[in-house]
Design brief:
The protein contains 7 helices and no strands. By secondary structure, the protein is mainly alpha-helical. The longest helix is centred in the first third of the chain and has 38 residues, at 6-43. It is globular and about 60 Å long.
Amino acid sequence: MSGENRIAQAMTPVARFLALVAGYALLLLTLTITAEVLLRRFANVSLQGGDELGGYTLAITGAFGFSLAAIERAHTRVEILTERVNPGVGSVLNLLATLGTMLMALFMAWRGWAALMESIEFKSLSGTPLMTPLWMPQSLWVFGLAVFAVVSTALFLHAAILFLCDRDRLNRFYGPKSLDDLIHEEQAGVTARGAQ
């Protein structure tokens, strides 16, 4: 078996696609905000609902980005302890971190689903001039949370298996990124950009 995390590699295309969609949505939001500011300043005109759509966009793009962040070990972790413990204790902490991420992802997906079902049941509309049916943005939001729940569950199960049979790989795949990891990633990015 190679030294690379095949579980993370298998899920990366979907997570990367969602992150790309989120990035373009944020770019579109930025252009909308810019247009709103310029129109207010120079034409005394406002785009109705820009702030509402911005809120939906931020919630959805956040949910879409969670999965790639989990795969790339980019979620915030307090590393001050893991740097000072031996690899055995570190493997326990790394397993607990993946467990905590999975539990939080499952909780968010569960509560998001409940909110979506409530909005559908009561035909909820936003309390704004747009009167957006809330199931529309919530559906995308819940989809992102569901993907995050699936990704984080797969990562936890993989980490649990590694905890039983190969704790060095558990620490390498699921521990905080080391300085060497960050340097290697940056060098690979520079090389890839140079080849284009």
